[in-house]
């Protein structure tokens, strides 16, 4: 790519796209079972929230900072492994609280963000608020402004 600036006073604004993409999460302040929450998110967004990085975990916890209720995410126990409801991906990143998962009572197959932000396995019929994952992503943009009064050629 070539940018050419001619002599005289010039102003050039260049927008640079950052390669990092931020997933958009939506907090639903309605109490639902895990199954109700999943159906709601699939109907209105994409699915329950999937968390695969520290950045995503932080983003969800910031979103729910003013609402520290237990919150459903899209992780569930599929007999042999923990899986994400969205695209049925295996769990590769985890933020379990101490002594979790514990499958207390033998029927804790769904995962919530506890008030402290860490994950707990719970019974899927418990009613909690919900974090959905939207299909929209945001690209970070940076604007570079160049002022000049002489000819320049910039080659990328």
UniProtKB/TrEMBL annotation:
Domain spans labelled C-type lectin: 25-133
Keyword Disulfide bond: yes
Coiled coil: none
Gene3D superfamilies documented for this protein: Mannose-Binding Protein A, subunit A
Protein name as annotated: C-type lectin domain-containing protein
Keywords, ordered alphabetically: Disulfide bond
Entry keyword annotation includes Disulfide bond: yes
